[in-house]
UniProtKB/TrEMBL annotation:
Pfam families assigned: TMF_TATA_bd (PF12325)
Coiled-coil spans in chain: 49-114
Keyword Repressor: no
Swiss-Prot/TrEMBL keywords: Coiled coil
Protein name from the UniProt record: TATA element modulatory factor 1 TATA binding domain-containing protein
Length: 133
């Protein structure tokens, strides 16, 4: 039985090799077989391959450049967001200071009017007491 298995294995391996050779002859597996199957000269295939590789490399450089620009723009966007937040805080602070300044000016004007009233009262009292004597 062991010899029968070996014989079947050997026959199987031989049949597999023959089928593989036949399949490989029908299936192009390299650029020369493709060009031969399509009746295209090898130098034309090489030129087309070189052109495709050049376009691929150019595309990859463009992708790299665009990725750098995106990264830079994302950083700028984050910075812009921080600047906008800071600007909003400064505007709020400015409005609060402007309001406080207006209140101080209003208080000063009220005190100046009060001072003018006190001066007039003092003057009137001095005139009253001087006129009595």
């Amino acid at each position: 039985m062991h010899k029968a298995l070996e014989q079947n294995s050997a026959e199987y391996a031989l049949a597999e090799r023959q089928l593989r050779k036949e399949y490989m002859s029908l299936t192009p597996n390299s650029e020369t077989q493709y060009s031969a199957a399509l009746n295209i000269p090898n130098h034309a295939v090489q030129a087309e391959l070189a052109d495709a590789l050049a376009k691929y490399e150019q595309s990859m450089r463009q992708i790299s450049t665009l990725q750098e620009k995106i990264s830079s723009m994302e950083a700028d966007s984050r910075h812009l967001g921080a600047v906008r937040s800071e600007l909003q805080a400064l505007r709020l602070r400015y409005e609060n200071l402007l309001e406080a300044h207006g209140e101080k000016i209003e208080r000063i004007e009220e005190l100046e009017l009060d001072l003018a009233d006190v001066k007039k009262l003092l003057k009137d009292q001095v005139e009253f007491f001087v006129g009595k004597s």
